[in-house]
Design goal:
3 domains; Helix Hairpins; 11 helices; about 425 residues; 5-stranded mixed β-sheet; Heat Shock Protein 90; alpha+beta; 5-stranded antiparallel β-sheet; Beta-Lactamase
Amino acid sequence: MFKKLHIKLTAYMGVVLIIFMLFIATGIYNFTKFVFEDGTKKLMQSEAIRIYTYNDSFFPEHILKDRDVLFNLGPKLAIMGSERLEASYVIYNEKFERVHEKKSESEIADAIAALAVDSFCTKTDSYATKKVDGINYRIYTKYFDNSNGPGIVQVFQNTINEEIIWSFLKMVLFLVGSTGMLILLFISYIFTGKSLKPVKETWKRQKEFIADASHELRTPLTVIQTNLDVVLSDDEGTVEENEMWLDNAYSETRVMAKLIDQLLTLAKADTNDEKLDLSEISLTEILENICANMDIIAKNKNIDFELINKEEILIKGDYDKIRRMIVILIDNAIKYTESGKVTVKLYTEKNKKVLTVEDTGIGISKYDMDRIFDRFYRADKARHREGGTGLGLSIAKWIADIHKFSLTVDSVVDEGTKFTLRM
């Protein structure tokens, strides 16, 4: 499922990248062409002014009629500005007679004469492109009117070299864009996989959670049903005679009630519905009260139990949740200690309140420590039915997190475990 989702997300990203790269490439191409065309137009306009200024100032009428001589001098005679334009031109006088035209380009001049007529009639300049004999030409037509009368200068040049450049630019943009898109797709595939990893992990844990919850609920229900079947099958038996079976069923209902309560707590945690009832509370008082009760349980297991607390420590938190978290930690220590000692210590260290619960029990392996706070996870599978649901430490971690506390664990197999709560 996730593999298909991974490919699908990468494909969607590919479509977005293609559209984005097309947009960028088209933008670069059109902007470059626009800037080039605008610059060329201004250059041709400047060239037309230079040609007209030079001819009007320095050339008498009889020289203007010597067209080949004038053309050879051409734009190289421009005396205004430093930019040069390799182009041809045609000059018209006030009678619309061509006073300059290169004989070899008379056919082109004839083809673009209509633009000169329009400019002469409207007394305006024009800039256009036109195809002559299969070749595109850029034409700038400049209208002049001074003391010598009106005149027209047409500057034109073919765009063969430019078309080669534009084709090359398209190819470069295509190759660069395609290569960039493939690289980005590869990067996208990697990062999409990394983004899906926590989702995949969450989905996996959710499946485990549902399976484990179903199993945990099924087990007490099976025990209850089995015991009640025994009672129902004994038609002549009294309540006292069937007390053992009824007690077993009742015991399992308490296990179910505890499990359901924990599941509801975690469900609220997932939806952030649980609100904190914050107030200043005495952690010392809570700890002493809990340890007084836990000491009895420890003695029943022949386990030494010690509380070390030499100062009054106050914190801001939710009384019920803080109490529940401490009960879980101490109960967990006693439960997984067969013999030895459980030590609970409360003290201040570097302006931090610290609570440690340390036991000499079975310990936790390094592999299990990574998942010790996961729901329904038990490091010791063999102790599956010893009153635990595998949810206690998950709840304890959640309570610590919503209070912005730090709950960590250190453990060595067969030596013991130490939970540290920093507040």
